[in-house]
Write a structure and sequence with these properties.
By secondary structure, the protein is of the alpha/beta class. It is built from 14 helices and ten strands. It starts with a helix and ends in a 5-residue tail after the last helix. Bound molecules: L-rhamnitol and zinc ion.
Length: 415
């Protein structure tokens, strides 16, 4: 008997079918963010990363061109099991030599190479307007700027991005999630907290005037609590984005688990929002003391978030995307550890006897529930993970990193 067969029997005894869990996991799309490969730089500008987000570290081998970034993504695909979607930012537009289009003027053609790349790997595409790292960010504000010219520029950017998102959906046959996040806010105590929010509201409403098919483009709004240099006030706060999504047909709230006060947990917010929204979206990250965007690990809160999606039967209602960027370690390794961790979290959730646990809660058998939840932690999860990786054609143990080391030696070190 193989270790997988033994594990399968153990899980069967608690009413869990491991083969079914593996089959299910294979088909759950998870959005892989392109920006881990180049420290959120993109190809449409020179100059620093702005908007309250920061990458730290200077590990060699960063992707400098679209070709390098695509090659790196292929390397990540090689060492990670599971179905992927590609998550692009508008600043990753690809121009022909000598060509340039500013953010308010970008068109589908500037993303044609990404579409070809996504098609090659059977991936859908998600998209993000880029409201940072640009000289039209005026006094730290974009869509909530009191300067009409600035605000208009960024509204036009949002509209251009809706057109591009629809193009992605049509080309790939898979709906595109288009996420609006701005770093708009103030470093120090503002005198007026409402006007920027009224402007932000107006701006997103103007973006939504761009006609589009709501079945093809899912517009999401991401909240945040604070950013570097934007410590005192964020226009797109949790209450703002949640209320905006609730009040606008076809707009979904997006929760990034780095964007709340440190004792708040997104795992608890997922079921709360699922009571009201047909669909929601997530940015999965690892905040270490603050919104640090460390690589996602197979840790308790990550497991808990996956559990809430699986046990509430919401795999088709939650759009999952990864969002972290670490420039201090091998970027491919970082990318892959995060993707593999979320795969593990989903598998872990799929291997729980969720109905049995719910019944214990409903019967108020809380001691027994605690016993079960603790004992489940030592089930042979690793053997099922190994089998899943095997069936997906990737290495399950730490040896997958040998491939990354080889790539570092042969490709990254020469950049
Ligand atoms: C920033 C937000 C946002 C970005 C990406 C690059 O705090 O999390 O989602 O990380 O758009
Ligand atoms: Zn995010």
């Amino acid at each position: 008997m193989t270790s997988y067969e033994a594990a399968k029997e153990k899980y069967a005894k608690i009413g869990v079918n491991t083969d079914e869990a593996i089959e299910k996991l294979k088909n759950i799309p998870v959005s892989l963010h392109c920006w881990q490969g180049d420290d959120v730089t993109g190809f449409d500008h020179e100059g620093p990363l702005t908007g309250g987000i920061q990458t730290t570290g200077n590990y060699p081998g960063k992707a400098r061109t679209p070709e390098e970034l695509m090659q790196d993504i292929e390397e990540v695909i090689k060492v990670t099991p599971g179905k992927k979607k590609l998550n692009l930012h508008a600043c990753y537009a690809i121009f022909e030599p000598g060509e340039f289009a500013d953010r308010d003027k970008i068109e589908p053609k500037h993303f044609a190479k990404w579409v070809a790349f996504a098609k090659k790997h059977n991936m859908g595409i998600d998209f993000n307007p880029t409201y940072f790292s640009h000289d039209k960010v005026k006094n730290g504000l974009t869509l909530s700027s009191p300067d009409e010219e600035t605000r208009r520029f960024w509204v036009e950017h949002g509209k251009a991005c809706i057109r591009i998102s629809e193009y992605f959906a049509k080309e790939t046959g898979i709906p595109c999630v288009m996420n609006i996040w701005t770093g708009d806010g103030f470093k120090d105590i503002p005198a007026d907290r409402m006007s920027p929010r009224m402007l932000y509201k107006k701006s997103i409403e103007e973006i939504l005037e761009q006609p589009f098919d709501k079945n093809l483009v899912k517009v999401t709004v991401e909240s945040k609590v604070f950013g570097i240099g934007v410590e005192s006030y964020t226009t797109g706060s949790a209450e703002f984005t949640l209320s905006f999504a609730a009040g606008h047909d076809g707009v979904l709230p997006l929760m990034d688990n780095g964007h709340y006060h440190p004792t708040e947990v997104v795992s608890d917010k997922i079921p709360a929002l699922l009571c009201f929204f047909p669909e929601i979206a997530l940015h999965i990250t690892r905040p270490v003391r603050w919104d640090s965007d460390h690589v996602v690990l197979f840790d308790d809160e990550t497991k808990e978030m996956a559990k809430e999606i699986v046990r509430n039967d919401a795999l088709n209602r939650v759009f999952m995307a990864l969002d972290y960027f670490d420039a201090s370690i091998n970027r491919i390794g970082a990318w892959a550890v995060g993707f593999r961790s979320w795969q593990k979290a989903l598998l872990n959730a799929l291997l729980l006897p969720n109905e049995k646990l719910k019944a214990l809660q409903n019967e108020a058998k809380m001691s027994e529930l605690m016993v079960w939840q603790e004992e489940l932690k030592t089930m042979p999860f690793g053997d099922v993970w190994e089998e899943y990786c095997k069936r997906e054609g990737v290495v399950s143990g730490p040896e997958w990193f040998d491939e990354v080391k080889k790539y570092e030696k042969e490709v990254l070190s020469k950049r």
